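Subject: Re: docking follow-up (zinc ion)

Dear J.,

Thanks for your patience while I sorted out the input files. As discussed at Tuesday's group meeting, I've set up the holo structure prediction with zinc ion included as the bound ligand rather than trying to dock it afterwards. The sequence and the ligand SMILES I used are pasted below, so you can double-check that they match what you have on your end before we go further.
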Amino acid sequence: MPELPEVEVTRLGVQPHVDGKKVSEVVLRRDGLRWPFPANLRELILHQTILATGRRGKYLLLHFAHGSLLIHLGMSGNLRIMPSKTPPQKHDHVDILLGEQMLRLTDPRRFGAVLWHDNADGSLEEHLLLRRLGVEPLTDHFTAEFLFQQARQRNAAIKQVLLAGDIVVGVGNIYASESLFRAGINPKTAANRISLKRYQALTIAIREVLALAISRGGSSLKDFVGADGKTGYFQQSYFVYDRAGEPCRVCQGTIRHIVQGQRSSFYCVNCQK
Ligand SMILES: [Zn+2]
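The structure tokens for the complex came back this morning:
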């Protein structure tokens, strides 16, 4: 599943090709994906200029003067830049043509989404799908003090608190496991039993792990394809994720696998307390 780094890599990849470009045509080959496409999507953006790209959680945003298009890649989607004349393949559902080039949404499993937020309906942050999202981990709003304060009411395991996404977005299963390893925190530790000092280590670790994944072109899935069609390779550098039974890269102890909230967690008992 594309996680925050993959979406950010996609945004960085498409941004130079779409910023300031005018939409010359919109092609929809279905009525919708996870949800129906906006009924008048073509009319809404045809001949309009994409002013900027953005991202909120795993939603990639295309900002226009009168509103924003929200694109979610679902379980297996990707968004790529290609020549406008490229013939569509089976899973190519949406083309946004920008003259010679186009933005093409491919989504074999069709869990993705394309939604419209009109500026007349208020601030984008208040959109139904965005307003309950936690802070962005790569912004100044994500601090150890913030995480510590928010975690005071949570007695659930820190791993599950991170995955919930209502305090901080984008720390998916892989990144939570890797960040907790780097911070030396056992994934089973209750969130409200972790000190501010340890949250300082954790916020740094989360930023580092996400930044590393973005710099390496996203993680994880074999089928993840960035805007340039290249696959990501963050997976080669995991310390604990998917390494059950293998030696810890730091202490040579054995990496353990447990299940928390039906998700796999991987950790080292020596390095993570
Ligand atoms: Zn270890």
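A couple of observations from a first look. The pocket of zinc ion is lined by residues 248, 250-251, 253, 268, 270-271 (CB under 6 Å). Strands lie at 25-28, 52-56, 59-63, 67-72, 78-83, 92-98, 101-106, 113-118, 255-260, 263-268.

Let me know if you'd like me to rerun anything.

Best regards,
T.
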